[in-house]
Structure prediction request, 554 residues.
Amino acid sequence: LLFIAPMLVLFLVFVILPLFTALGLSFFSWRFLNTPTWVGLDNFEHILRDRALPRSIVVTGLFVAMGVLPTILIGFILSVLINVKLRGIALMRMLYFVPIVVSVSVNAVLWRFIYDTRRGPLGAIGRQLGLDLPSVLDTTQWALPGLVVIMIWAGLPLVIIFYLAALQRISEDLYAAASLDGAGPWRMMWSITWPNVATTTWLLLVLEIVFFSAGSLDFARATTDGGPLDATTSLGLYAFKTAFERRDVGYSSVLSLVQMVVIVAVAGLLLFVARVRRR
Amino acid sequence: MTTRRKHDLGRYVAILAVGLLMVFPLAYLIAGSLMTVAELAQYPPAIAPADPQWSNFTQALEVLDPRTILNSFIFVIGVIVVQLALSLPAGFALARIPFRFTVLITALFVFPILVPGTLTLIPTYVVTFVLGLVGTYPGLILPVAAGASLGVLLFRQSFANLPDGLIDAARVDGASWLQTFTRIALPLIRPAIAAYSVVTFLAAWNLYIWPAVVAPGEETQPLSVALLKLVANDYTFIPPTVAFAGAVISVIPVLIVFIVFQKWFTKGLIGTGLE
Prediction:
C-alpha cells in the first residue's frame, strides 16, 4: 500500500478535490482575495439571465461541429494513403506526424501572421488576384472557421497515428478476397477498411470532441482571446474569463458545472448511439 | 509489373506531396524566422532566405528572457520525474500486490481521462491558490504531474504483462516487494518508461493554459506562455520575423526529441491502452 500512497495523495489533492471545490464554490461569492460569502443559489439564478452563456455554448458547439468530422475523415484518408510498404515510408510518415510538435502558442504566433492580410501571405496572394481580403481573425464570421482550420491541422497527427495502428491490424486476406471479387481500391476502402476500423473511429470521435471542446479554450485564448466581439468565446473561455478577468470565482464554478453537464450529455448520447448501432 | 511500378510511383508522389503540405506551416515558420521582413512579405513569396538573419533570434531572446527557456526545462523535467516516481510504484502495486480496493482505485484513475482539462482548470487553480503555490515551481509542476492517470494505467498494464513466474520466483526467494519492484520489474518495462517519458515531454512542453494562469511572473513562466509576448503587445512593434524566431526557439527542443524518439512516441500514444 505504501507504493500507491504518494500518487494517491497527489491525485486526490489536485484532481479529485478540485471537482468538489467547484461544486462547493458555486454556492459562494468569492473574488480570490476576500473571504467567500454564502449566496445560496444566486449564482445558479444568474445563469437564466446571462445572455453571454447561450452564445458561448453555441460557439463551443460550432467548434466541435466544424472540427470533429473533418479531422477524422481527413485523418482516415491520409492514414490509408500512407499505409503502404514502400522504401523510405517511415521517413515520409514522419512528415504527417510533425504538426504534433507545434504547440498552441507557436500556432498562435504563426497563424496570426498567416491570417493577417495586411502583412501576411494570404493578403499578398489575394492582392495578386485583385481581391482585398479582410484579416481572417478580425472578422466575426471567419475567425471561428479560421481557428478550426488551425486545430484540424494540429489534431491530424493523433488521428493518423491511431488509424495507422488500426489499419495494420486488418488482415491482408480480406483485401485479397475482395480483389478476387473484382472490387476496386475505392470500393475496398469504404467496404473493408472503414468498417474494420469502426472501434477506432468511435474512440477518436470521443477524443476529438474532447479536443475541440477543450481546445476551444487554449487555441482561442492564445490566438484571438475570444474576439472579435466574442465570436470565438467558447464556454470554456467564458468561464476562464469570468474567473481570471472578472474575478468572479463563484459564477465561474457554476459555468464549469454547466460545461460538465453539457459534456456528460454529449458523451452519454454518443455511447447510447454506439450501443444501439452495435445491435 | 510495369503498371504496378507506375502505380507505386504515383502513390509515392502523392504521399510526398501531401506530406509536404502537412509540414508546410512549420517549414514556413522556420524559413520565415531567418528572413528579413521585406522577404517575408514579398510576392511571389521567397522560399528560402537569401541571407539568413540570425539577428532575429538574438532580438527574440531579448524579449523572451532566457530564463523562460530554463523554466520550460525545469517544468518538463519536474513533471516527468514526479510522474515516474509516483506512477511507477502505483502501477506496480495495482498490477501485482494483492490488496483491497484495487478495482476501486483503478476506476478512480480512469475517471479523469473522461473529463476535459477546461473543466478542471479553474477549480485546480483555486486549490493551488489556497495552498499558496501560485507562482512557484511546485504549483506549476505538481497539479500537472497529478494528472498521471495515463501513466498509472500504462504502467499497470506493463507490469501485469510480465510473466507471473518471474515475480513469484522473486517472492519465494524472499525478496521484499520493494526489491522485487526495483530489481526485477522495473528493468523489464524500460521501453514503456521511455515511451511514456517522450509523450510526457512533448505534452508538458507544449502546455499553454495551465502555466498561463499559475505562472504569472517571469520567475517561473515557461516559454510556451512567454512566447505570446511577441505577438500580443499592440504598443511596441515586434517584426513578425522576430516573433517567428521566438516560436522556432520553442519548437526546436520538441522537434529534436520527436525526431530522435519518434518510434517510442507513437508506441507510447497507442500503448496507453485507450483502445
The mean pLDDT of chain A is 80.
